[in-house]
From TrEMBL:
This is SapC family protein. The lineage of its organism: Bacteria, Pseudomonadati, Pseudomonadota, Alphaproteobacteria, Rhodobacterales. It comes from Ruegeria atlantica. It holds the Pfam family SapC.
Length: 277
């Protein structure tokens, strides 16, 4: 059994089993954070606080989904709907997850499956894990290919983090503008960045490290909203807010609708039409 209850996909264990595509983000409700890669850092930073975690293999960036380890994320509704405007790559293929934070191995166990997600079945009408020749079935091959690309991006991301660590830029992140972070988060302060030699700054500009740092620093403002979202959820649970008060879900639904409207307007512009609010 892999860490976090995830199990490597294998012919012996899953050769006669089946899986269903997820229709709910309930599996992410209790996640406090999830890894993100450099290729998606701008989209993720526009939605979530981006901080850094440290494993035995080094630092890596995460999207913070909850500021309180014992509280569910406000980004998943009571009905399992994803409410944020961006879905981190690692969450897009449930019940499967890639092995991202370990050093490169032989690749046989890079595809992990959450057997507790109730998406693993014995129903032949669902998707197969393997074909008759013992190879990954076509749909699962697509998932594996997506995860290989994601793992490649994470490899570069952890390389950037290693460069930042070697420059002494990481430090414990405990608070931001009065908001307390759970233990185990790290960040890069502007003060630390300003103290590095000019040659280091030039390297970070050319290799993407500076973009990663700035995305992280700017994204921390989301921690304030996220803390307010938790407080609102507490008050709603206590019945102290009226039904007429716009809740967190309504606010996030509005953000999604606004983004969809903007995308539709962009499409119209590309077609040479005029769009009006």
């Amino acid at each position: 059994m892999a860490q976090n209850g995830l199990t490597p996909v294998s012919l012996g264990r899953h050769g006669h089993r089946f899986w269903r595509r997820f229709t709910s983000f309930d599996f992410a409700r209790t996640m406090a954070d999830c890894p993100v890669v450099e290729a998606e850092i701008l989209q993720a930073a526009a939605t979530f606080p981006i901080t850094f975690r440290k494993s035995e293999h080094g630092f890596y960036p995460v999207a913070v989904l909850s500021m309180q380890s014992d509280q569910p994320t406000p980004f998943v509704s009571a009905h399992g709907k994803w409410l944020a405007t961006y879905v981190p790559s690692v969450l897009r293929c449930a019940p499967f997850r890639p092995r991202l934070i370990e050093p490169d191995g032989d690749g046989r166990d890079e595809l992990l499956v959450d057997e507790t997600a109730e998406l693993i079945t014995d129903n032949p009408e669902d998707e197969t894990f393997f074909d008759k020749s013992g190879q990954l079935a076509p749909e699962l091959k697509k998932v594996a290919a997506f995860f290989r690309a994601l793992k490649k991006s994470m490899k570069y991301t952890t390389h950037l983090c290693r460069v930042l660590a070697d420059m002494g830029l990481f430090g414990p992140l405990t608070t931001f503008q009065g908001v307390e972070f759970p233990s185990g988060h790290f960040g890069v302060t502007q003060n630390a960045l300003e103290k590095i030699p000019r040659a280091h700054l030039s390297l970070l500009t050319s290799n993407g490290g500076l973009r990663l740092i700035h995305a992280h620093q700017i994204s921390l403002t989301h921690s304030i909203w996220l803390t307010h979202a938790h407080a609102r959820a507490h008050r709603e649970a206590d019945g102290s807010l009226t039904q007429q008060t716009t809740g967190v879900s309504g606010f996030l639904d509005a953000l999604v609708a606004a983004q969809q409207k903007e995308e539709a307007m962009d499409h119209c512009r590309q077609e040479g039409h005029h769009a009006f609010l």
